[in-house]
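Reopening: Nucleotide-binding universal stress UspA family protein still failing for me.
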Amino acid sequence: MKTIFLPLGDHSVVSNTNVTYILELARVLKATLYVSKLYKEPGRSGGLPAKSLKMAQIAEQEIKEELTAYNTEGVKIRVKPLEGDDWVEAVGKFHQKTNLDLIVLTPKHHNINQANFLGKTAGGLLRETETAVLVVPVDYTYKPISRILMAVKSGIVNDKMTLDPLRSIKKRYKADLRLLQIKTPQYLPEDSEFDANLGELVDMYKSSENATVFQGLLEHLNANNPDMLCVFKRKRGFFEKLWDDNSVKKSVFESRIPLLVLKEKQ
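Support: Ran it again with your exact input. Result attached.
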């Protein structure tokens, strides 16, 4: 993994409490961390005087000031303000110029009165970009990743590059990867086939019969006690359906530990 993207700002999809986690992750992975904030330049007819700093420069200064509160030693950081008022559009354009391997998002705060796990901005980035996503809970304290629990219905992987983020995390942390194959009512015989690239990463395998992938994940979560969850976002899959409207309700899905979402190109 070479690049990680971290959005900040008033309309950020990442809380400042997540910054420490991401800095430690980037440090271990030896990845370049792009830290960003949205800005919008005023029109020519009004706004700032000609000698004033441009909004991009102001956003860059704000990012640098925020980062002074954290230990950034050993992390290669690139401050990159993006123009616009829509994260999905801005990140999409940036990804075309600079290949991003991972985007960091945060769920809504763990407030019992908050109905959604992911809001529309975070859900939109997860659903409408091609890049793998790491969802880090708001108040989650960093600790080394020693065990990853991956939940799948099918062992088929059409593009081996889809596994690159998982492969990097497992290698750098020397993490134990436990694969849970969940056989839902829609399970097909070909789903039992396993891609060799996935198989070589797995340290332990178990199967379970459940109504949905998420139900199977919940059933085996405590027994495995993972530091990270991992799922695929596939076309017509359970997790793809979750983000049909760019938001996810807690009544349908919620994770209290980091969630890595791998995306297969359609």
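The two ends are 21 Å apart (CA to CA). If you still see a failure, please send the error message rather than a screenshot.
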